[in-house]
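User: Fold this; tokens only.

Assistant: Input:
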Amino acid sequence: MEELLQQIVGRDTLHARWLNTLSFMENAGARKISACEHPTQVNFIQLKHAAEEHRHAYYLKKQIAKVDPDHCKTYQLHELMAPHQTRHYLHQLDMQTCRYLKKVFGLEGQALKYAAYLFVTYAIEVRADLLYPVYQAALDKAQSKVMVRSIILEEEGHLEEMINQLNEFAADWEVHAQQVQLLEQQLFDAWMAAVGQELCQYA
């Protein structure tokens, strides 16, 4: 991942698409959180997470102007890296997690949606805590004007909040979280492989 990110940061057009890809994923996460909300019983943390993920999407989109202001105005396929894996990453994780939670806990309807929100968001926050620091290190090495330190701090806070909510959900939540993380790892590996294949075109 470090090598891939160094290659991406070293090319402005690629870097713009990478920022746009991260922005798309943050936006998809915010929309997924909102979609899981109960019509009336929405808690403060869910609102906070959705708002902050939307802000991350906006912030990353805004950073594109620092590297390639003429590209990546929208989220069309040609403006994303590994577009098919990118567009389906979160949706696939959500579906696979729902299947697992339904089987293990027998949940349905709104209860299943809420449980999926907890476990999927946890897995994504763990991933963000791994990905963004490596990306920031690549930015520092390249002396880039782009920064993601503010996102790193907020994602760390999100992870702590998800752990608190999962502790309330089930005493053995970590056992189930590990299963969801295995699902996420497979999707992440496929995504990184697709990004790597794309970079081969520029080698």
